[in-house]
Amino acid sequence: MCQDRAEKDPVCLCPIVGEYSQPKCDVVQNLCNPNPCQNGAECKSWAAIRRQCICKRGYTGVNCSVNIDDCGLNRDGCLYNGECQDGVDSYTCKCVSDFNGRHCQTTSDLCSGTPCSNGGCVSNYANATHKCFCDYPYQLGSNGQCEMMDLCNTTNCNNGTCLNGKCSCVDGYEGSLCQHSVDECKTSPCKNGGTCVDGHKDYSCECLSGFTGKDCEENRNDCPGSCNMTYTERTVDKIDECECICIAGYTGINCMEEIDECASYPCKHGATCTDRVNDYQCDCTEGWTGKNCDQQIDYCTTTSNKCQSGKCFNLIDDKYCRLLWKFLSVTERLLHWIYHMSIYGHAWYWRDVY
Fold first, then answer.
1. Which domains does the chain have, with CATH numbers?
2. pTM for this entry
């Protein structure tokens, strides 16, 4: 469209959607030619009024000229003081010593190899270092290591002499300053429950009853003087005691007691018991015999005056004869009657005789 302007040249108003340029709308205008987009970006234009750069990954800006700071977008991408190095749509980590991995997340033990001699080591992963903590008499030196202190200039060796900054202890003492007495009981030398008493360069053992020796290793012989050897067959030494094995007839701890064999009342039927050494004797009452007076005497077989022409019956302390009357003469019958009358005061035997 041509527009007239007073006292000026007319101008052409090109179609808004057209691709023609001033002044006569007869020249095609391309906003992407020349291409203003950088780093391989794609340029797009809309008619002659607008264009846009489509950036590749990793770039930004109107013309895609700015590399995106991937390190800024990943503040914690590199660990343990690793240095972030920006790339295109990526970043890499430059790790400090002893660290590795994409994010410097992997490390070896900073205290490996015992870098702190004579002291303790603590890893400091924040700055990828280690720190030494020294034990007395060592101190942290300028090189970060534990160095021996010159004790000879600072203290005295209590029970020893100083040699090259160290205390050389006399026998019986130990420690960095020879301040401790050696514990002679630490090896538990006392046996059988003995109590160890530490001394200077030595020890002693307080033994339980029944044991003796330097280390309470010997069972004390408790038998001498313990048994009456007259009545002792043999002795058996035990822990803290002696066992006396008595000969027959004696008893007691020391074999001093004679055994009373009559205590069990072995004699029967009223017999009297007499104790003997390892034996006894029974004095039997009338009519009994045997070791224990438990056997009745058979007078019918043991006496010489046996019944003649009659039957013998044994009594407790005697016998009697039952005569066979038919074998007696008149004189024998009369004598028999006279005998019984004189002995027993009656002649009841006449009724029993047949």
1. 1-68 (2.10.25.10), 219-258 (2.10.25), 260-297 (2.10.25.10), 307-354 (no CATH)
2. 0.34
